[in-house]
Amino acid sequence: MAGSHSQVTPSSPFADPILAARLEALRQLADGLTDRVAVMDRELNVVYANEAAWGKSGKPPAGTKPAKCFQSFVQMTDPCGTCPAESVFKTGEVLTVSCSTSGDGTACGMHQAFPLVSSAGEVGSILVLFHKRPEPLSIPASLSQQRPGRSRPERTESRLGDLVGASPAMNQLFEMIRLVADSSATVLIQGESGTGKELVARTIHQTSYRRDKPFVVVDCGALPETLLESELFGHVKGAFTGAAGSKPGLFEEADGGTIFLDEIADTSPTFQAKLLRVLQEGEIKRVGGTQPVKIDVRVISATNKDLTDLVKAKAFRQDLYYRLAVLPVHLPPLRDRRIDIPLLVTKFIADSCQRHRQDLRQVSEEAMRALTAAPWPGNVRELQHYIERAVVTTIHTELTCADLVELGSHPQDTDLRTVGRGAARQAERTRILQALQQTSGNRVQAARVLKISRASLYNKLHELGIQ
User: Fold this and answer.
1) Same domain, yes or no, for 295 and 428?
2) Is the domain of 395 the same as that of 263?
3) How far apart are CA 351 and CA 377, in angstroms?
4) Contact assessment for residue 256 and residue 210, using Cβ atoms and an 8 Å cutoff
5) 391: domain CATH number?
6) 3-state secondary structure 378-442
7) Predicted confidence (pLDDT) per residue in 351-381, tens digit
8) Which parts of the chain register pLDDT below 50?
9) What is the pTM of this model?
């Protein structure tokens, strides 16, 4: 999608490279949408608006000086008394406006305003979404021809596909996914380990028009440079020792779909240079080959490191960073969205019970409070594994605090001997429960399976609190 046919000015009005890159990405995205989308600078001049935003008034001729938002969208000569979007420049927070053209709110029908931050960390412009106009809008032919058979993930108040959350941060993430899904611009997902970066990337893919095409995951940090290059770009026969035949790479495998480059910060400068060329030219060359291969792939990358710090330290290419971070997404750690923990616990218990063929469990109020208050340094992944372990190693219909062994205790807070005793106790409990399940609760047979006496088994059952 070329973003030129709805531009107010033929070139970017922003000198800042990050603002310019984000504006170009939004042009590519929003030109094909029926939603009304606009970008305004700090003086509320319209620097970009898509066809749907201009409506019947039509877009201004190319080269026209940017007009104020009230002049462009509601044809007023004087500014509005109060514009809620102005507060975004002061607070830097996403603003939701509960009003429409038929209500008492903004005459333009503004619905949401997102801050667009410059390389200096300041809000340099805002992205504004408007309510739909009452009259129907025609769908561009380029999108109407794409009718994938797989349905988009369902969006509810607390869920988008497999993503779960009701916190403001997650609601903003859901809106951002909906906004960027059908764009071909690159997305950079940043967040701590275990926050669910791959799940976000998969949800973006499943929400986009590419959802019927492949979604390919590459762990860049797990492969050495030479192998990573061969895996991604492919190789020709004889390119290196052992290359008995030609092999297409993962970029070719993902053609038409999405490729997810996890741990992108762990790549070498040489590989970064080759990846930059792929993003610039839209083509790859197999290792040992000379002929370029055109590809159509959406690139989503992720890292748990701060790439801006790596750029300043000359450990990551600045030009590649700008290419990858056209649409940046930040995932907050679980400790910053504790309101989502009960929702996640409920989902993980249901998933674990189904996976291990067990009846659905409940969680006591006291246990849920303890889970919500726990630190979870490993974020959502740690919580998921913890819940699965609790489901497998207990037989109660309701999980209590007694079932959640050493909740909130972490190795850095405990000496090595205590950690070892806790791990051994947990392993004994798990093995005894497996034996009892294997023998349908027959303790005599379970003792034989465990190769211990009946008395020893009874003592263990009493010691571990197994009914």
Assistant:
1) no
2) no
3) 22
4) yes
5) 1.10.8.60
6) CHHHHHHHHHHHHHHCCCCCEECCCCCCCCCCCHHHCCHHHHHHHHHHHHHHHHHHHHHHHCCCC
7) 999 998 888 889 888 888 888 888 888 999 9
8) 1-10, 98-105, 134-148, 406-416, 419
9) 0.61
